[in-house]
Specification:
Elements: E1 13-16, H1 18-21, H2 24-37, E2 40-44, H3 45-57, H4 63-76, E3 79-82, H5 101-114, E4 118-121, H6 130-135, E5 138-141, H7 143-150, H8 154-174, H9 182-185, H10 194-203, H11 207-220
Length: about 220
């Protein structure tokens, strides 16, 4: 018989997977949610290197810009980049896909270090099975799930999205790129109106967040 494990409160420490760091928007919304929840962001040098290696490989960033940005990422997001091996915990997270096991092992190392639940934030839910991780004290979320877990009011959701967009615009203005890529030159502007946000969230895999935001219309038009 399957045992339903109780869902703990959202932890105050989050280990981020490389795919969460990959996108400017994903980083921005996670930083906003961390501010809402007063949570601390974590990742490892291995996770960070994986992110920037793929950004360069896919033409999202020039290698020189990637090297500069990688040096400053933790300070920009007010996060902790850990430089430690997690090999001792790999055997405990065999339920996780092998290529992603180091992320779960790093989260487990942090959980033992802090002696509290740790959130594991990833877009790749299928390779991080929830129940085995929860038994280890790791609470897995996608950024989309985390958004609706922390914000239930659609009006507050819209304000959070708008504030995140403004923060992201400010950061982008402050940043100087040595080599603009085709991807950056063709990037769409951030949304302004609620209808634009609905389309943007869907495009960025935040379908639960989009449904929450859509409730504004149903609340105002019974």
């Amino acid at each position: 018989m399957s045992v339903l494990l109780p869902k703990p409160a959202v932890p105050k420490h989050w280990m981020l997977d490389a795919n969460v760091l990959f996108s400017e928007w994903s980083r921005a919304i996670i930083k906003s949610l961390a501010n809402v929840h007063q949570a601390q962001l974590h990742w490892t040098d291995q996770i960070q290197h994986e992110c920037y290696r793929n950004l360069v490989r896919l033409g999202r960033l020039h290698a020189e810009d990637a090297a500069l940005e990688e040096q400053n990422l933790a300070s920009h997001l007010q996060a902790t980049c850990h430089v430690y091996g997690s090999e001792a915990y790999l055997a405990d997270v065999k339920a996780v896909d092998e290529k992603d096991r180091h992320v779960a092992a790093s989260a487990l190392a942090l959980r033992h270090q802090l002696q509290t639940h740790v959130g594991l934030i990833t877009w790749n839910l299928k390779d991080f099975p929830r129940k085995p991780l929860l038994k280890l004290g790791l609470v897995r979320y996608s950024p989309d799930e985390l958004f609706v877990e922390l914000i239930q009011d659609p009006g507050i959701a819209l304000c959070t999205l708008q504030r995140t967009a403004e923060d992201m615009k400010t950061l982008l203005k402050q940043r100087t790129r040595l080599h603009a890529t085709t991807y950056e030159l063709s990037a769409r502007p951030l949304p302004m109106q609620r209808e634009e946000w609905l389309e943007f969230l869907g495009r960025n895999r935040q379908h639960l967040s989009a449904r929450l935001l859509a409730r504004i219309e149903s609340c105002t038009n019974p």
